[in-house]
Amino acid sequence: MKKYYNILKFIAIAVVIVFLYGFAAHRNSLRKEQGVNVFFENGENLFVSYETVNKLLIQKLEASELQTKENINLKQLEEFLRDHEMVENAEIYLRLNGELGAIVTQRTPVLRVTCDTEAYYYDSQGKKMPLSDNYSARVPITTDTISGHDLDLITLSNIIKNDPFLRKQIIAVDRIDREKGSEYELKTRVGDQKIVLGDLKRMDKKIAKLKVFYAKTISDSTYANYKTINLKFDNQIVCEK
Questions:
Q1: Where in the chain is the domain with CATH 3.10.20?
Q2: Is domain 109-240 classified as CATH 2.60.40.10?
Q3: Are 173 and 166 in contact, with CB atoms under 8 Å apart?
Q4: 101 CB contacts (<8 Å, ≥6 apart)?
Q5: Helix pair 50-63, 74-82: axis angle to 10 deg
Q6: What confidence score (pLDDT) does residue 15 get?
Q7: Which stretches within 39-73 are classed as H helix?
Q8: C-alpha distances in Å from residue 180, one per residue of 113, 149, 176, 231
Q9: Could you give the CA distance from residue 23 to residue 71 in angstroms, rounded to a whole number?
Q10: How confident is the model at residue 66, as a pLDDT?
Q11: Residue intervals in the chain for CATH 3.40.50.11690
Q12: Half-sphere exposure of 14 (CA within 13 A, CB side)
């Protein structure tokens, strides 16, 4: 008899545990999201804030009739965030406890366009990006724009951004249209000089020559004597005082 009593007791306890677990899970599935944990994958939130991402997602959830955890469409939320003008990529996740999170990759400006009617950035992929009220990126300035599939201007801007020396030294980029294609000239921060770059061929050698030039002229304090640094020619640097 005692054996059967223990079995019944065990079954009763198991039923209660299953019921409580199911009830808690049901309550959790019906819980509406009130906040989002936001993580910026590529550094500080310079162009879009935590509050902005949180507010966008909460408003999107509230605008939908399917707000509960079990009905949240994570892919739809990701696409919604990716449409934001400052966001390059977004991943949305939902933890077992109902916590909603977002991993956001901001767009990276590499060039600032300033013309008579407007000002904006180009990002690292060659897409237009608006200026931000929160932060001003330290990138080269140009008056040129991208047309068609011509992305040489973005290629050059990415080279400048990814090189610590060029990133600090180059403040402006000018494109010059030639019969055989575009060539480029750069404006420097130190020395206020013009660098005649030519086309984007042999860029590694041109950058190496430029660094040799500055290493030499800075060491003997003569860099300010030169107005133009021409890197177009092989195995030599042609300078104008």
A1: 32-106
A2: no
A3: no
A4: 36, 37, 38, 39, 92, 93, 94, 95
A5: 130
A6: 47
A7: 50-63
A8: 24, 17, 11, 18
A9: 18
A10: 47
A11: 109-240
A12: 6
